[in-house]
């Protein structure tokens, strides 16, 4: 229910709804605390939230659960980045329908010419706990090798999918490995094996590998390849950002 892009001033009238001494829903308290974490007035709002009643809680919840829609995505991206922005939204919609059964919530897509995540393209931009609920894609004017493409978008959507399902969303987890195996098969029919990272003893040294397939003993992709999916060695050739097909 968090809309991190909402203006903080909009919290003020909401605080006025909070009037008597009943304890509100935990999720609303957590939400208000989260929203106000960076605000000097945060603790005060949180205290006021402690004095809310069921009606006020319901009102607050309704205010903040107004969904961010596909149309909002289009308006935002179109206003900010023109046709490229619209095209990326269309790709997001297509991928959502094709690869995630339409399960993903509409999300603000941000195109940037800086590299907010270092040299890592859009590496892990979908991270509501630190950067808010957006997908940020790096589209620099120079440095063609760092250009985000449709593969980068899909990669971020895997993160989004796992976050929204409440699963561990990192590249080191089973859910990420499960999804890249599933999606590679769907995209180009290839069966890949991504095993968990583990340590083994080799030549009296302890080394870290990814576990081979438990039955076929097929070696795993390396952890680096797993983290870079769908780029590097999967036989997937993503089109330029926003262009048709994958
Ligand atoms: Zn990532």
Notes on the protein architecture:
With 246 residues, this protein is mainly alpha-helical. It has two domains: 8-64, no CATH class; 70-228, no CATH class. It has nine helices and five strands. It has helices at residues 11-15, 26-35, 42-49, 54-64, 70-99, 128-131, 150-164, 174-188, 223-228, and strands spanning 109-112, 116-119, 135-138, 197-202, 205-210. A two-stranded parallel ribbon has the order 1-3. A hairpin with a 2-residue loop joins strand 4 (197-202) and strand 5 (205-210). Helix 2 runs antiparallel to helix 3. The radius of gyration is 21 Å and the shape is globular. The two termini are 31 Å apart. Residues 1-23 and 38-52 have low confidence and may be disordered. Zinc ion binds at residues 123-124, 159, 171.
Topology at a glance:
Elements: H1 11-15, H2 26-35, H3 42-49, H4 54-64, H5 70-99, E1 109-112, E2 116-119, H6 128-131, E3 135-138, H7 150-164, H8 174-188, E4 197-202, E5 205-210, H9 223-228
Parallel strand pairs: 1-3
Antiparallel strand pairs: 4-5
Bound molecules: zinc ion.
Zinc ion is lined by residues 123-124, 159, 171.
């Amino acid at each position: 229910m968090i809309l991190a892009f909402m203006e903080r001033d909009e919290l003020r009238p909401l605080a006025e709804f909070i009037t008597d001494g009943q304890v509100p829903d935990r999720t609303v308290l957590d939400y208000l605390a989260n929203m106000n974490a960076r605000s000097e007035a945060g603790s005060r709002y949180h205290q006021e939230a402690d004095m809310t009643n069921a009606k006020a809680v319901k009102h607050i919840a309704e205010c903040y659960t107004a969904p961010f829609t596909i149309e909002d995505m289009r308006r935002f991206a179109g206003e900010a980045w023109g046709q490229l922005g619209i095209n990326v939204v269309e790709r997001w919609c297509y991928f959502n329908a094709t690869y995630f059964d339409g399960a993903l919530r509409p999300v603000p897509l941000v195109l940037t010419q800086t590299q907010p995540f270092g040299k890592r393209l859009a590496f892990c931009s979908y991270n509501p706990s630190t950067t808010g609920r957006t997908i940020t894609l790096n589209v620099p004017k120079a440095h063609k090798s760092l250009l985000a493409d449709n593969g980068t978008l899909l990669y971020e959507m895997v993160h989004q999918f796992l976050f929204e399902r409440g699963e561990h969303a990192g590249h080191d987890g089973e859910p990420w490995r499960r999804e890249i195996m599933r999606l590679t098969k769907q995209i180009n029919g290839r069966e890949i094996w991504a095993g968990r990272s583990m340590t083994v003893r080799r030549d009296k040294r302890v080394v870290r590998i990814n576990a081979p397939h438990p039955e076929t003993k097929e070696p795993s992709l390396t952890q680096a390849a797993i983290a870079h999916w769908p780029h590097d060695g999967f036989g997937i050739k993503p089109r330029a950002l926003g262009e048709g097909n994958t």
